[in-house]
Amino acid sequence: MIQIVKLGSQGLETSRQGLGCMGMSEFYGEADDAESVATIHRALELGVTLLDTSDIYGPFTNERLVGKAIAGRRDQVVLATKFGIVRDEDGTRRGVDGSPEYVRRACEASLQRLGIDHIDLYYQHRVDPNTPIEETVGALGELVREGKVRFLGLSEAAPDTIRRAHATHPISALQTEYSLWSRELEAEILPTIRELGIGLVPYAPLGRGFLTGRYRSTDTLADDDFRRSVPRFSGENLDTNMATVEAVEALAAEKGATAAQIALAWVHHQGEDVVPIPGTTTRAHLESNVGALDVRLTDEESERLGRFGTAAGDRYGDMSPVNR
To answer: Which one of the listed residues 57, 123, 178, 215 is annotated catalytic?
Structure first.
């Protein structure tokens, strides 16, 4: 079975690796709902307990999908969802809202879509620059006291924001992008959360699929795949970043593993307080990703991969909402 680890210091425990469900509903081209549900069921069979979704994925449809998949299996799941990025049903973005009124309204809506009576880990998806973090987290703390939420998280928050939030109500997890090609958090964010006893949940630990070696050109991406707008996937940046993929593939060949397993093993090597949530829409890729837990890197191998540092190009076309 998959190792169970503590996420943060408030008592939350999850599998050593989770499952990101976003791509089952949006952003990476078409997905198959039946295969997505089967993938979630297979994850639970394998001992993956942490499922990650958000109200904006779809929008709204991913929570319904996850809710359908976990019906009758609630006791096997550590369910994480998020609020704060406001979207209409048609996908139109309306900015970010961290107001206490919105926190409560968003939570009630997520509970209904998911078909559950409490959320295990509730993240603020992006920090609202117009609402003091103390007000947002204060409202979240009320939901904890009412039993509607068990533990709190932040996503893409800066060190000062994390400290202020944690002083208002204990934060169990920070979610941000972290992988061999996204290491910006190592300078300030990672030391901050380790000082405070907050766990790290890396999303896109496979570099949005790039580190698997499957994407050597944006020509292979669907027309509506959001990676077409990601600077790291375009032009000279893409060419530069191929050096990281080649290093991953070389080590994979040496160890008899896949490139994806090596990239995930590198993330796991950074500590047991790091619980990545690779996303996938198929059982085959899920099983391969879970196999990364059996791949052990030496310190020398980890350092060899880590020499490439952060990738060329920004993580998003617009970085302004990130790490506020």
So the answer is: 57
Helices and strands (DSSP H and E) totals, the chain: 10, 11
**Residue holding tokens 């204990």?**
170
Instruction: Please tell me the total number of residues recorded for the chain in this structure.
Output: 324
Residue 243, number of CB atoms within 10 A of its CB: 13
Q: Name the DSSP class of 203.
A: E
What does pTM read for this prediction?
A: 0.91
Q: Tokens standing for 158?
A: 């800066």
Q: What is the DSSP string of 19-68?
A: EE-GGGTSSSS---HHHHHHHHHHHHHHT--EEE--TTTTTTHHHHHHHH
Measured CA to CA, the distance from residue 45 to residue 43 in angstroms comes to 5
φ/ψ (deg, to 5) at 292: -60, -25
Contact 200, 273 (CB under 8 A): yes
Alpha carbon distance 46, 286 (integer Å) = 10
For 211-258, the pLDDT digits (tens) are 997 766 555 666 666 666 677 877 678 777 888 999 999 999 999 999
Contacts of 271 (CB under 8 A, 6+ apart): 200
Give, in degrees to the nearest 5, the angle at Cα 268 between 256 and 209. Answer: 70
Angle at Cα 6 formed by Cα 147 and Cα 295, nearest 5°?
Answer: 135
Would you tell me the crossing angle of helices 259-268 and 283-290 to the nearest 10 degrees?
50
* Window from 137-141, 167-171, 206-210, 250-254 with minimum mean pLDDT: 206-210
What type of residue is 218? T
- Rounded Cα distance between 235 and 239, Å, is 7
Residue 316 is a catalytic residue: no
